[in-house]
Amino acid sequence: MFKDTPAFSGFSVDDQAAAQKFYGETLGLSVSSDEMGLEIQLAGGGKVFVYPKPNHQPASYTMLNFVVSDIDKAVADLKAKGVQLEVYPDMHQDENGIARGRAAGMGPDIAWFKDPAGNILAVLQND
C-alpha cells in the first residue's frame, strides 16, 4: 500500500533552538526550521522532523543511529565538541564509551549519546 509513498520519522524536543544548534552545529547536519519545528536532512536523502512539545519525555531507546566508517574518529569528534557519551553497565564499553560488538561477534561497534532534550542517539560501525 505505501511501497512508493515518501515517508519520514519525527520526534519531540523540549527546546527547538537548542535542538537546532545541536543537530546543525554540533552534529553538522543540514537543518531548516519553521513555526512547526525542524527538518533535518540525513545522508542518502532521508529526513527527520523534530517538533517542540511542552511536556516532552525523552526517548528511552535509541531513536536515531548514525552509521560511520570509523567509530573511534566519530567518538573522538563528538567528545571534542563537548558531547558526553552514555555508559550502560551491561554493554561492556571500553574507556572511550564504545561497545565493541564486532570483536565479540555480537553486532556492530556502537556508542550512545543524548541530544539536549535527552533523546538517545548512537554512532555505530558495522564493517
How would you portray this structure in words?
It is a single chain. By secondary structure, the protein is of the alpha+beta class. The chain has two helices and nine strands. It has helices at 16-26, 71-80, and strands at 9-13, 30-34, 37-41, 47-52, 62-67, 85-86, 99-100, 109-114, 120-125. The strands form two sheets. Strands 5, 6, 7, 8 and 9 form a five-stranded mixed beta sheet that branches. The protein is globular. The mean pLDDT is 93.
Keywords:
9 strands, 4-stranded mixed beta sheet, 5-stranded mixed beta sheet, single chain, 127 residues, alpha+beta
Q: What characteristic shape results from the CA principal axes?
A: globular
Strand content range: 25-35%
Task: Kindly state the percentage of residues in helix.
Answer: 10-25%
Task: Profile the largest sheet.
Answer: 5 strands, mixed
Mean pLDDT: 93
The counted number of beta strands is 9
Q: Write the H/E string, N to C.
A: EHEEEEHEEEE
Cα distance, first to last residue?
A: 34 Å
Concise summary:
By secondary structure, the chain is α+β, with helices and mostly antiparallel strands. It has helices spanning about 15-25, 70-80; strands at about 10-15, 30-35, 35-40, 45-50, 60-65, 85, 100, 110-115, 120-125. The strands form 2 sheets. Strands 5, 6, 7, 8 and 9 form a 5-stranded mixed β-sheet that branches. Strands 1-4-3-2 form a 4-stranded mixed β-sheet, with helices on one face.
